[in-house]
Specification:
105 residues, mainly alpha, 4 helices
Length: 105
């Protein structure tokens, strides 16, 4: 008798579960998988790529092979801040939009 009640309860709760899942489906479609990357994330990505491509002592806060901070000996300090992106303020809005367009972000 208890087995029949459990089976009936499962059959009755199935439509409710379906309605709940159907109601949650728009939330599943709006997850970050299809969302745009935040500007801060793109800035961070562009800075990391720039520092990686510049090599050793790219930024003033970088450290040289001998363990000393690069400071005034960095590429950033020597080049007039035009060749390396080290800080969030170095990344312009146009750079963010260009990264979005090129990479489909």
């Amino acid at each position: 008798m208890a087995v029949r009640r459990a089976a009936r309860h499962r059959k009755e709760s199935l439509p409710r579960l379906s309605l709940v899942l159907l109601g949650l489906s728009p939330l599943l479609w709006a997850t970050p998988g299809g969302a745009r990357m935040a500007n801060e994330d793109i800035r961070k990505m562009l800075i990391e790529e720039s520092v990686a491509s510049a090599g050793e002592c790219a930024c003033p806060y970088s450290y040289a092979w001998n363990g000393r901070q690069c400071a005034d000996n960095s590429v950033y300090s020597k080049s007039g801040r035009q060749s390396v992106l080290c800080y969030p303020n170095d990344v312009t809005w146009q750079m963010i939009e260009e990264a979005r367009r090129r990479r489909g972000l």
